[in-house]
Write a structure and sequence with these properties.
Structural class: alpha/beta
Order of helices and strands: HHEEHEEHEHHEHHE
Strand content: 15-25%
Largest sheet: 7 strands, mixed
Bound molecules: S-adenosylmethionine
Helix content: 25-40%
Number of strands: 7
Length: 257
């Protein structure tokens, strides 16, 4: 989740829906320009291709925002939902002009609160929630619902800010670990407990995209290393940091029995 833009600061008084309308129409009205979200979305797209090698999964994305990730995915059908009506309006408008391969149905987007969402009868092959689980009021209920709507043998993918690293990212508001109506930033054990509580089998849990420029992180993530280590060395160092849990995002891949 990017830092709160200065022009959204007046937002602290807003209700949840209005805040997310503002966030989505400020940060996500255009296709992605920032490298952080681009890298995250590309990672998720690759992961879906890996777990659904047919290239034609039925996908549900919870908290899809303006649908940017959906426009970089391969699927046979895609349904996105989000609390923000403004986000869904943008997603629907963009979907009208999408050129789709034969046999692929046009993505659909729906403005709704996932806590109360009534799903279609047929379950999905992949259910995902990218950078949003921290925003839900009832995270245990949401994880159980994610699990409920995936088919047996299908996958749930979650990505969320790693609160341990987030603390070390210098932010314009002075570094508070907060951004918009965040309900609770989940630690690794908390995320694993949610997955277990939803009766999903945890397949992978890892961090990606090392970041942080405060304290020791300033040294660990210094650009200086790229120069000293060269491209290959820097790539290896990045992987080591990801393995050590120093990535900005945690990725969870879980499977339904
Ligand atoms: C940080 S944004 C991420 C959006 C999108 N995944 C992205 O990366 O661009 C969190 C999203 O969660 C959505 N959201 C928050 N609470 C929700 C709820 N109860 N039901 C559905 N969506 C919700 C917000 O509207 C917002 O678009």
């Amino acid at each position: 989740m990017p830092e709160t833009p200065a022009y959204a600061e007046r937002s602290w008084e807003m209700d949840e829906r209005s805040w997310w309308d503002l966030w989505n129409s400020s940060w996500r009205a255009e296709e992605l320009k920032d490298e952080i979200s681009t890298e995250l979305f590309e990672h998720v797209a690759r992961l879906i291709d890996e777990v659904a090698p047919s290239g034609a999964p039925r996908i549900l994305e919870v908290a899809c925002g303006t649908g940017i990730l959906s426009r970089g995915l391969r699927f046979s059908s895609y349904h996105g939902l989000d609390l923000s009506a403004a986000a869904i309006e943008i997603a629907n408008k963009k979907a009208e002009s999408l050129a789709l391969p034969q046999g692929v149905s046009r993505p659909t987007y729906e403005a709704t609160d996932f806590h109360e969402w009534e799903p279609p009868a047929e379950p999905f092959d992949v259910v995902m929630c990218v950078d949003a689980i921290s925003c839900f009021r009832d995270q245990a209920l949401v994880t159980k619902k994610l699990a409920k709507h995936v088919r047996s043998g299908g996958f749930v993918i979650l990505t969320t800010i790693n609160p341990f690293v987030w603390k070390y990212i210098r932010r314009p508001d002075g570094g508070k670990c907060q951004c918009g109506p965040v309900s609770h930033w989940l630690t690794k054990p908390e995320l694993h407990a949610l997955v277990e509580g939803a009766k999903l089998k945890l397949q992978r849990s890892y961090t990606i995209m090392p970041r942080g420029n405060r304290g020791i992180f300033r040294i660990i993530n210094s650009h200086h290393w790229n120069r000293v280590l060269g491209k290959r060395g820097a790539d290896t160092f990045k992987k080591l940091k990801e393995r050590a849990g120093l990535g900005q995002y945690r990725v969870i891949l879980a499977q339904k029995a």
